[in-house]
Amino acid sequence: MAKRYALVPGVGVGTMRFGDRVTEHPELVLRDPEPEYGAEEGYAEYGVTGLEETLIIYVDGEGKVDSVSFYEFCMVDGRNLIGMGVGQLLVTLGMPSNIDAEKIGRDVELLYAYEQLGLTIWTVEGEVCVVQAGGVG
Prior knowledge:
- The chain is mainly β.
- The protein is 6% helix and 44% strand.
- It is built from 1 helix and 13 strands, in the order E-E-E-E-E-E-E-E-E-H-E-E-E-E.
- The protein has an 8-stranded antiparallel beta sheet, with helices on one face.
């Protein structure tokens, strides 16, 4: 299943491309019509049956796929970014365009932004825990 939903940074996930209409992908199921993330811009959350907690697809007010968040796996070129250490992440993707820190409860999460790839990667205790991907340009 993970290979079927592999990420091509800046392009899409599996057969789904950033900018595609959600109606082009019948496998997508509406999760939340007014999610906390992006609610002010009119985004809706979609998922894939069987991957509800693993993969969240954000669709804009025009019904187009805007971005995707990965929580349990994120396959890029045959490698799973989720659970990867920061050192291996840097070897795999190179230097990020920006690094930021965000305090969530008691944890401090470091965010690695790869703007040229359309990626924002969250790490906790030196390990990738969330990958958010969107289109580039």
